[in-house]
Write a sequence for this structure.
């Protein structure tokens, strides 16, 4: 195995940076909303799961169609898996971290 070609390395770092930046923005939006809506802190688990659904819907029906990628056909089984991943791996951790840091404030 040789070294990763420069173009692939730059693309991988760029994609990781884009993902990290997107997650930072999503967390900042949730945290800012939790300052005004106390229920996002007191009921963090259901609010986080709903936030994951909202992120999925926004990304798939607003962001992707407006991007250069465009709308892709979805397979129902795959869409369900991706939705659950958004709920558990995006919305829920953001809500739990916001609750943790709100308790300290």
């Amino acid at each position: 195995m040789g070294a990763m070609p420069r173009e692939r390395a730059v693309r991988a770092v760029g994609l990781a940076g884009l993902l990290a930046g997107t997650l930072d923005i999503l967390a900042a939006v949730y945290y800012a909303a939790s300052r005004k809506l106390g229920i996002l802190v007191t009921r963090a688990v259901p609010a986080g799961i709903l936030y994951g659904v909202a992120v999925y819907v926004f990304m798939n029906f607003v962001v992707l169609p407006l991007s250069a990628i465009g709308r892709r056909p979805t397979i129902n089984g795959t869409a369900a898996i991706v939705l659950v991943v958004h709920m558990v791996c995006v919305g829920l951790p953001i809500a739990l971290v916001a609750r943790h840091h709100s308790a300290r404030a």
